[in-house]
Recover the amino acids of this structure.
């Protein structure tokens, strides 16, 4: 009885803005179906999925950090760093001699480095009590710098089909990174709703002192959130490099922090913390991607698309305010 | 003479819960008027109604001769009412002068701040209180006392007719208090009225002319301080007759008492800082030990030390005979200690989470198998507590913020009972809950102790302590000074023990 009652209650109490997000998505889809040429074609779906996946992956990590009441500005820089490392590894002598090992290391090591960036952010915030926006500003500035120093500021092009699978591979006809984003979402959703870590994450965002006095491992959980966010950013960085078969440390992940925050907020994350709508983040990412695509496909310039993005954020924040009062 | 401020028949409710009913307050020009009462008596609500922070539901506020239409702190300032809050609302990084003249800067050519004139004014206004400091230095370089005086100076420079001081001495040392008192007397000499809110009754005898006492949102008395004894004030605050000794139980603590068992907890000479300098306590199985004392006597700090929140500077805490303070709340819970904090909103509930999630927060480690929450057990436990404690909630997934204060408190009590602690530390467990819930909570505590566990009970309500505790450790200025044992404790004995150790005890003995 209790069990069966659970789901409807959840749905009923789901935030209004989530419904608002779905409405926005439907409006966008209908508009495109009517007015955008060639919208209802598989090719369009592929393009959008492969582009939205990176935003979605980073936005999910951002959602976890925002759930603790924090923010991570360094995601774009971490993408650049991870993306710069990968070609260096599989193009090295070792990587050339052992292609399989090279590709494996080119994925594992950058993710490890990304994870260390997350540890740095997390320790700054949770142990040294630096404000998240300042703490993550450090890597925001220096991360991309390190990436450019590593690559001497050059564009690194390569041809490595097995690594490029990350960005160009297909499973059941759909882009690999789309599946990856979906798997990550399911895992994170499970973690948030089913594990003590997830419960503590939301409790810390909801009332950190209460969580601490109830024995919650506040530091560990916060550091964990920053590490997951950084590792996911690293993943996104690798995917971008794989899509392009080139690593451009200056552009990889540029302005990603803004897209990710926007997607998380549109998806229903509250900046003061306490809420982690993982699928909301994906929805937010999809909306942002679709708006971009809609405007581009209809001949509106890129610069105008930026303004449209801002409008979406204003709308999302406004809806959050509506709900609170 | 016409009263400067006259508030009468004031009504104010929050979400249907009355905070003030038929409250009144009258302040004469040039008098120092004390406003006292226990926590939750309505003092700060009254002040906020007067200063326009809250809009009153009923009653009238007359300032001078006019009905007041103050609806914002800015209006209050223009009407000549200045409030000096505990948390000062000044800018520590800017100079003393800037803080005093902010918003009213003297201008040169109508555009540039005339600093020479500004400094002169700042010096002049400070000099009126006998303070001579470098006004060009940042305010933050000075002590809290000086900062407070600067706030007062600012108020006076704005031609305040009434200065409201909310617990002005709580963070001052003895010599600073003397300086502040000098300033208060100076204000009175200049014809400025002062509304003085304080928990330290002895101070009132030194500087106040009249005292208004509030209880449960009502004004119970206004007395001339020179004709009043401290015991009478306390009696007014508590709503008890000083001569009366309660013959029968008024709380639901009374009942079969368990046999006192082994020692659960011992603290010896414990110190965590200036607010807790020497704390001794022994807690046995099956007993409730109360911590008695006025606000700021170190009761909460003692609880935080036992729970491992504040690290020890000195002394020993022994649990079950093993020395060692818990390293933090997590370890304290593993060592079977529970701590219900005083401030339900700031330290207790997680407002957006459900009743279920709030209740099992401290229990999570025990509810999990390899990090995964056992939802079935969680729901069973929560269900049991909801029916055992009679928690009124639509369902266990209702957000806790939608519950009444009493029911929220029951959920938090359940949070700790669920961890089955040996030692439960309760800081003001019945504050701000209605009478019915209060009695229920008290009886849960008693029946818990009867099972052979130990409780440390902190309460500002003497009645609750006297009737609930098997022993009371009396605290004063961060030290445990006496211990009283039941049966035989009366409120008078407790009040006597508190007063006896009060610094200014001579003041009222001499009356």
């Amino acid at each position: 009885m209790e069990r069966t009652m659970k789901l409807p209650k959840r749905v009923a109490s789901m935030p209004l803005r989530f419904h608002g997000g779905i409405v926005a998505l439907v409006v966008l889809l209908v508009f495109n179906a009517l007015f955008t040429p060639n919208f209802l074609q598989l090719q369009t779906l592929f393009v959008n999925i492969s582009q939205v996946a990176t935003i979605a992956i980073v936005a999910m990590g951002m959602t976890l950090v925002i759930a603790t009441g924090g923010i991570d500005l360094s995601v774009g820089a971490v993408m650049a760093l991870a993306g710069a490392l990968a070609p260096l590894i599989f193009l090295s002598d070792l990587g050339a001699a052992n292609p399989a090992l090279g590709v494996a290391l080119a994925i594992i090591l950058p993710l490890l480095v990304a994870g260390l960036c997350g540890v740095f952010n997390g320790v700054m915030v949770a142990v040294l009590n630096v404000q998240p926006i300042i703490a993550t500003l450090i890597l925001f500035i220096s991360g991309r710098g390190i990436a450019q120093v590593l690559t001497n500021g050059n564009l690194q092009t390569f041809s490595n089909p097995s690594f490029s699978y990350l960005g160009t591979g297909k499973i059941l006809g759909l882009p690999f990174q789309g599946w990856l984003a979906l798997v990550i979402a399911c895992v994170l959703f499970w973690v948030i709703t089913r594990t003590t870590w997830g419960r503590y994450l939301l409790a810390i965002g909801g009332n950190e002192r209460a969580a601490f006095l109830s024995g919650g491992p506040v530091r560990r959980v916060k550091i964990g959130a920053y590490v997951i966010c950084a590792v996911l950013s690293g993943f996104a960085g690798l995917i971008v490099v794989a899509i392009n078969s080139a690593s451009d440390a200056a552009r990889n992940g540029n302005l990603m922090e803004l897209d990710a925050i926007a997607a998380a907020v549109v998806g229903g994350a509250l900046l003061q913390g306490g809420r982690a709508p993982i699928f909301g983040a994906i929805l937010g990412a999809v909306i942002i991607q679709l708006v971009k695509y809609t405007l581009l496909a209809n001949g509106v310039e890129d610069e105008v698309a930026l303004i449209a993005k801002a409008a979406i954020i204003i709308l999302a924040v406004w809806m959050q305010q509506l709900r609170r009062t | 003479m016409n009263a400067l401020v006259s508030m009468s028949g004031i009504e104010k409710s929050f979400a249907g819960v009355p905070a003030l009913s038929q409250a009144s307050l009258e302040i004469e020009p040039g008098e120092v008027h004390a406003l006292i009462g226990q926590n939750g008596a309505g003092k700060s609500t009254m002040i906020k109604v007067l200063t326009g922070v809250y809009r009153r539901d009923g009653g009238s506020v007359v300032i001078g001769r006019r009905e007041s239409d103050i609806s914002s702190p800015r209006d209050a300032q223009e009407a000549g009412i200045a409030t000096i809050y505990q948390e000062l609302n000044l800018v520590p990084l800017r100079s003393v002068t800037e803080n005093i003249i902010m918003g009213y800067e003297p201008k040169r050519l109508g555009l540039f701040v005339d600093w020479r004139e500004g400094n002169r004014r700042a010096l002049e206004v400070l000099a009126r209180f006998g303070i001579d400091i470098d006004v060009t230095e940042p305010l933050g370089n000075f002590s809290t006392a000086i900062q407070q005086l600067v706030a007062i100076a600012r108020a006076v420079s704005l031609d305040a007719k009434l200065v409201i001081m909310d617990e002005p001495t709580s963070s001052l040392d003895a010599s600073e208090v003397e300086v502040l008192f000098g300033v208060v007397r100076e204000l009175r000499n200049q014809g400025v009225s002062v509304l003085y809110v304080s928990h330290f009754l002895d101070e009132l005898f030194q500087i106040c002319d009249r005292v208004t006492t509030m209880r449960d949102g009502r004004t119970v008395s206004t007395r001339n301080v020179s004709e009043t004894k401290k015991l009478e004030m306390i009696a007014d605050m508590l709503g008890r007759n000083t001569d009366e000794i309660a013959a029968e139980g008024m709380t639901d603590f009374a009942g079969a008492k368990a046999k006192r068992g082994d020692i659960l907890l011992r603290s010896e000479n414990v110190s965590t800082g200036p607010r807790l300098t020497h704390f001794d306590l022994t807690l046995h199985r099956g007993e409730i030990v109360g911590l008695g004392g006025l606000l700021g006597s170190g009761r909460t700090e003692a609880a935080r030390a036992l729970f491992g929140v504040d690290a020890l500077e000195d002394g020993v805490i022994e649990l079950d005979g093993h020395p060692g303070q818990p390293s933090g709340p997590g370890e304290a819970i593993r060592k079977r200690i529970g701590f219900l904090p005083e401030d339900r909103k700031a330290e207790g509930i997680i407002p957006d989470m459900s009743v279920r999630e709030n209740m099992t927060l401290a229990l999570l480690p025990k509810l999990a198998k390899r990090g995964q929450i056992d939802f079935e057990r969680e729901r069973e436990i929560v269900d049991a507590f909801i029916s055992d404690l009679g928690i009124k909630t639509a369902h266990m997934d209702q957000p806790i913020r939608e519950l009444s204060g009493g029911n929220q408190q029951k959920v938090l009590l359940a949070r700790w009972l669920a961890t089955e602690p040996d030692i439960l530390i309760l800081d003001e467990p019945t504050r701000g809950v209605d009478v019915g819930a209060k009695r229920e909570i008290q009886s849960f505590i008693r029946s818990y102790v009867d099972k052979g566990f130990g409780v440390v009970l902190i309460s500002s309500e003497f009645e609750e302590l006297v009737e609930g505790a098997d022993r009371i450790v009396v605290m004063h200025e961060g030290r445990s000074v006496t211990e009283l044992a039941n049966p035989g404790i009366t409120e008078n004995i407790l009040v006597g023990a508190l007063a006896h150790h009060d610094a200014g005890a001579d003041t009222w003995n001499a009356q």
User: Anything to note?
Assistant: The interface with chain A takes residues 307, 309, 329-330, 332-334, 339, 341, 346-353, 357, 361-362, 364-365, 367-368, 371-373, 375, 379, 395, 397, 415 of chain B (CB under 8 Å). The longest strand of chain B covers residues 17-27. DSSP finds 19 helices and 24 strands in chain B. Confidence is low (pLDDT under 50) at residues 244-250, 502-511 of chain B.
